[in-house]
From TrEMBL:
Source species, domain of life: Bacteria
Domain ABC transporter, chain residue ranges per copy: 6-260
Transmembrane segments: none
Family in the record: Belongs to the ABC transporter superfamily.
Listed GO MF terms: ATP binding
Record-linked PANTHER family: D,D-DIPEPTIDE TRANSPORT ATP-BINDING PROTEIN DDPF-RELATED, TRANSPORT ATP-BINDING PROTEIN
Protein name stated in the entry: Dipeptide/oligopeptide/nickel ABC transporter ATP-binding protein
Pfam families with a match to the protein in the record: ABC_tran
Origin species: Microcella humidisoli
Length: 267
């Protein structure tokens, strides 16, 4: 793969909400690049636009579907594909090449499917006739890569802890061996010890497979474990971007300054 994993230029994302479906901008004039195999972490306050950006990069944009994110200006290319040209997510090449872990991913697992069946969903979406036995092997490998025991496979999501469900969701996002992983607060709401374990597993899988990653986080400690590069989002615009230390050592915006002080206090 030679094209950038992500290339956004002057990107504006908006929603249409309320009865009048008045457009509301969530991200404005944003530019960023992620090279193949590279990770970019994004940090910012609640409502700064992190999830909106993650959704768009994962290809979940729409002009017609209610509550969908719209590209209202600029450009967004993911793995060389113009996201503006996508019609419906799920039937396009992007869906097969991007692993997406949405916020609260563990809660969006299908409760009627076993863990194994949940993780296998993308394999059968790609190819309805995918050999079941091969799928079984790939699922077992994905489960093992997230350090879950194989005894987890026949269980149902409600039989697992929140941290285990989250790991299953990550396994599902990685099962097609994506070129890009988009993870939106993959460890939110999980206690610190389990969170550390999940991050180590994720970092290890990435080292082995070499995919690019866009990681949303609200924790600078977590960011450091997964990425060398950081983008700081504030009210829908980027107010700092570069290596984590460069961004925090030379805060160019009052919000980045507050973040740097917080990071120093925690160190
Ligand atoms: N489905 C939606 N319809 C309308 N507006 C939305 C929708 N989702 C998000 N927004 C608005 O877009 C802006 C950015 O929200 P977003 O969820 O991307 O922020 P965030 O940084 O991910 O926040 P959090 O950390 O709380 O998840 C906010 O003003 C939010 O109210």
């Amino acid at each position: 793969m030679t094209e950038p994993a992500v290339r956004a230029r002057d990107l504006t994302l908006r929603y249409r909400s309320g009865v009048a479906r008045r457009p509301v901008a969530a991200v404005t004039g944003l530019s960023l690049d992620i090279a193949p195999g590279e990770t970019l972490a994004v940090i910012g306050d609640a409502g700064s636009g992190k999830s909106t950006l993650a959704r768009a990069i994962a290809g979940y944009t729409s002009r017609s579907v209610d509550r969908g994110v719209e590209i209202a200006g600029g450009s967004l290319e993911v793995l060389g594909i113009d996201v503006r040209r996508l019609r419906r997510h799920g039937d396009d090449e992007l869906a097969l090449r991007v692993g997406y872990v949405p916020q609260d991913a563990g809660t969006v697992l299908d409760p009627h499917l076993t863990v194994g069946e949940n993780v296998a969903v993308p394999l059968f979406q790609r190819d309805k006739a995918f050999p079941k036995k091969r799928a079984g092997g790939i699922v077992a490998e994905a489960i093992d890569a997230m350090h879950l025991t194989l005894a987890t496979i026949p269980k149902y999501p409600h039989e697992l802890s929140r941290g285990q469900r989250q790991r299953v969701a990550i396994a599902r996002a990685l099962v097609l061996d994506p070129d890009l992983l988009v993870a939106d607060e993959a460890t939110a709401g999980i206690d610190a010890t389990v969170r550390g374990t999940i991050l180590s597993h994720l970092a290890e899988v990435q080292r082995r497979r070499g995919f690019a990653a866009f990681i949303v986080s609200s924790e600078i400690g977590e960011v450091r474990r997964l990425s060398r590069r950081l983008a700081v989002l504030h009210r829908g615009t980027i107010v700092g971007m570069g290596s984590i230390d460069d961004v925090l050592d030379d805060p160019s915006h009052p919000y980045v300054d507050r973040l740097a002080q917080l990071a120093r206090a925690r160190a």
